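Sharing a chain and its predicted structure for anyone who wants a worked example. Both blocks are below, sequence first, tokens second.
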Amino acid sequence: ARNGKTGLQAATDGDHDLVLLDLMLPGIDGFDVAAALRDRVEIPILIVSARHDDEDKIRGLGLGADDYITKPFSPSELVARVKTNIERYRRLTSRHRSSPVAGAEGSLPVDAARELAAGPVTIDLASLRVACRGREVVLTAKELAILRLLMENPDTVLTKDDIYGRVWGEAHFGDMSTVTVHIRRLREKLEEDPGRPTLIETVWGLGYRFNAT
């Protein structure tokens, strides 16, 4: 598309599997396009940008983008990221249509409990609503997938490779800073003091652990 406006219209009017979105667009910038797209479509949004700052990644992913790849990158990496995002989206939508229970990679079987609880956090596996300390918390699809993965493995250290491989589906091509950004966003939404997290703990040099006590 020539600009953000025509790109937004093309993405919402057509039948697409994924949106590749550059942040540097004339007219409506990529951040505004991402926010508008997420309100209208559920397909994966993959941001492609020369911006390397974590704040840009936090903003883009926080607006609902599913992945963020920084330039320069190899064509094979881009193809791999596109394929894994599309394949994972198709698996999730297929699972959600065939069962009232849907969620992260490695999800619970159909006849499992309809609620996942660990510490002060609960996930209703039918509605995919999340509550923390009795307050409903709105998460993006990737944030929910990461949270569910951590809660299904309480008090267990998961590396960034583990998380990326389970949630995005292809650890080899993954940008591990994407995991860091999503963890930061989860802490902002769940922790009483995000600067001193007690739920999603960092195990330095290893990864992250969900504290269920």
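Comments welcome. Residues 99-111 have pLDDT under 50 and may be disordered.
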